[in-house]
Amino acid sequence: MLSIGVHFITTDYNRKSVLVHHLLDDVTGKPLPICGVDLDLHSDGDATDFVEAIQRGDVPISNDDSERMCGRCKRICLSPGTKEEKSTKRLKRWNRKQAKLKVIEKYQQEIIAKQLDRCPKCRSLLDAREPLGYEDHYAYCDRCFLEWTFGILARADGKFTVFADDASERHRGRAQGQVELKEMVWKWD
User: Residue 179 is part of which domain span?
Assistant: First the structure.
């Protein structure tokens, strides 16, 4: 069953706000936007009237600039196929996306355990600590007295890029590699 979700965005340097309406499908047990956008939207009622208006070619919301319909949701609603076929496709896409996210998370943990266990400068063992903020990994080197923060961009095919910065901002580098390979080559700025 489709329902409506609302997302609040700001435009024009935060002077103007717009409510964007999305069509939600609860194929996973939780209502998710059919356009695939990664937002946590709460259901705001049944979408039957919205869908019928879209299929007639009408605008289902007011004509002022304070709210609008998601264009991608509208195109998906107008695409050929039954509601059940579309929901089945959405569920398959969602399952693939979740599996891909699990693989990426597993690769990140492998990179931290096997590749980032040594200091990028002196190659001594690092003392791993709880990461702060948006960091993926944080560690301290007892030998060269550097605090390292690492950002990890892993992909589902096993390729990754690691960005490293020390707290003193003297060392900044990046390395690329493959999860199965044991070596990373650092390039320092």
Answer: 107-188
Domain membership flag for residue 90: no
pLDDT at 176: 92
Q: Which pLDDT belongs to residue 2? A: 84
Residues 115 and 73 reside in one and the same domain: no
Contact 60, 53 (CB under 8 A): yes
Indicate if 16 and 74 belong to the same structural domain: yes
Q: By C-alpha distance, which of 74, 72, 28 is closest to 47?
A: 74
What does the alpha-carbon distance between residue 67 and residue 62 come to, in Å, rounded to a whole number?
Answer: 7
Q: What is the Cα–Cα distance from 174 to 185, expressed in whole angstroms?
A: 8
Amino acid present at 183: E
pLDDT for 156: 93
* Dist. CA 51–CA 36, nearest whole Å: 18
Cβ neighbour number for residue 89 with a 10 Å cutoff: 15
Whether 87 is covered by a domain: the verdict is no
In 9-134, alpha helices (H): 48-56, 71-78, 83-110
- Cβ pair 158, 178 in contact under 8 A: yes
Look at residue 159 in the predicted model and tell me its pLDDT: 92
Q: How far apart are CA 147 and CA 144, in angstroms?
A: 9
Q: What does the pLDDT read at residue 173? A: 92
Low-confidence ranges of the chain (pLDDT < 50): none
